[in-house]
Every structure is written in structure tokens, then in C-alpha cells.
Amino acid sequence: MTEFIWPVRVYYEDTDSGGVVYYANYLKFMERARTELLRECGFEQDQLIEEEGVLFAVRRIEADYLCPARFNDALLVSANVTAHGKASMTFTQEVRLAETDQVLCRGEVKVACLDVARFRPHPFPKKLLAALAVE
């Protein structure tokens, strides 16, 4: 799969008292990009719960904050699958300033696929792996 990119605008509510994006909000931006990647591939998370009996949970995250984003900045957030196992998937993600393509934050996110009823690891649906081109 080619690099997936989702545009995000920084709202006033995303900033801290210093006028820059609060660090935890970068994680929200990354979450949105992963969700939109799934949507782009034809999968809604509520439908996966209902039809496949699986949900996704962040198991691990590592983030490097390189430069601040500010109110009203236009950002580009990438989401790329870089590794996967039977019940886990690793994404590398970047938040970049749209105007200059400068990397503001870089992260690696490991997501687990869980059985809804037991909250135990469950293999990813084969059709999802095929859509993400990671079989």
C-alpha cells in the first residue's frame, strides 16, 4: 500500500497555554489517520465489532516530538503499516507541516486486534489484511 496521508487543521482547543499543540493531541491526530486509513480501505470500526467480533487497541506507542505545531496550522498525518503478526500491527506515523513538509512529530504505534467478548488477542480478519496489502 502506498503512504496514506490525512489532513488535519490545528484548532484552538488543540493548543496549550503556550499556544502550541499539546503533546497528547499528536496521538489523537495519529489515531484519526489510522481510522481514516481503515475507512479508505472500506472498513468501519463499529462494523468490524458487529460483523467480525473484533476491535483494535493501542498496545504500545513511541513518539518523538521534533518541532511544535501552532494554532491554525495545516498538518499532514501519515499512517503506514510497517509490520504485522497474527494479532498485532505496527504503524509508523508522521505529523508534518503541510506548508513546508517539515516533520513535527514521528511515532511508532503497535495495535492489537482483540476479540470483543473476551478482550484476548484475535487474528486480524483476512479481508482487512488483504485490503491493507499486508498478507
Fold and architecture overview:
By secondary structure, this protein is α+β, with helices and mostly antiparallel strands. It is 24% helix and 39% strand. It is built from 3 helices and 5 strands. The chain has a 5-stranded antiparallel β-sheet with strand order 1-3-4-5-2, covered by helices on one side. A hairpin with a 5-residue loop joins strand 4 and strand 5. The longest helix is centred in the first third of the chain and has 18 residues.
TL;DR?
By secondary structure, this protein is an alpha+beta fold.
CATH classification class: Alpha Beta
| Number of separate strands | 5
Order of helices and strands: EHHEEEEH
In percent, how much strand structure appears in the residues? 35-45%
Number of domains: 1
Spatial arrangement of strands, main beta sheet: 1-3-4-5-2
Report on the biggest sheet: 5 strands, antiparallel
> Tell me, what's the shape?
elongated
Mean pLDDT, to the nearest integer, reads 95
Task: Report the helical percentage.
Answer: 10-25%
Query: What name does the CATH topology carry?
Result: Thiol Ester Dehydrase, Chain A
Q: End-to-end distance, in Å?
A: 11 Å
Radius of gyration: 16 Å
Please name the defining characteristics of this protein.
3 helices, single chain, five-stranded antiparallel β-sheet, 135 residues, Thiol Ester Dehydrase, Chain A, 39% strand, alpha+beta
